[in-house]
Each structure stands twice: as C-alpha cells, then as structure tokens.
Amino acid sequence: DLDECAGSPCKEHQYCLNTDGSFSCKACDASCVGCTGEGSEKCKTCASGYVKEDEKCTDIDECNLPEKVCTKENQDCVNTSGSYKCVCSEGFEDKDGTCVQT
C-alpha cells in the first residue's frame, strides 16, 4: 500500500485517511482550523469561539463571560456552538431591534 496521505492531497480543512490502495479526505471537526485527524483533540488551532482546554478545542460559553454580550433591555443570551445569539426574554418580542412586551 502506498501512503497517498504523505503528499497532503486534501484541502485545508480536511485530514487524509489512508486506505488500502487509496485514501479519502475527511472534514475537520467544527472546532478546528486545520487538523491532523478526527475530533477536537486533533486541531492544529482552534476556530473562533473555541479555546484549547485539556488538549481539546472546547466551546467558549459567551453567555457566562464577566462582560455581558447581550446588552439590550429584556434580552437573554443563548450559547451556540462556537458563538452565541441574543434573544428577547420570555414575554417579549423583537420589534425593529428592541425587545417589547407581548
């Protein structure tokens, strides 16, 4: 078997998996910018919104940061994978960028 992966045939956000007589390119984990294999522990560097913890890229919970990220009145923070979103609190709805009581 020839190791086709030795020549780095895959794209930037993929890793090479050598198979008998061939190879395949697999997508890196969403938490990675470039990787050497499968999973968040094989990242070359962590993607935006992720931090290296115990050799793995883990999601940053922006909603628990000391500095509030959702600063408008009656607005709640919802953590998402690699990011966050600001939503109106229960009983409020978005009207032209302001959370008003429903």
TrEMBL record:
SMART domains: EGF, EGF_CA, FU. Pfam families: EGF_CA. Residues 59-98 form the EGF-like domain. InterPro entries: EGF, EGF-like_Ca-bd_dom, EGF-type_Asp/Asn_hydroxyl_site, EGF_Ca-bd_CS, Furin_repeat, NOTCH1_EGF-like. It comes from the Eukaryota. The keyword Glycoprotein applies. Keywords: Calcium, Disulfide bond, EGF-like domain, Glycoprotein, Repeat, Signal. One of its GO terms (molecular function) is calcium ion binding. Belongs to the CRELD family. This is CRE2A protein. The lineage of its organism: Eukaryota, Metazoa, Chordata, Craniata, Vertebrata. The gene is Creld2a.
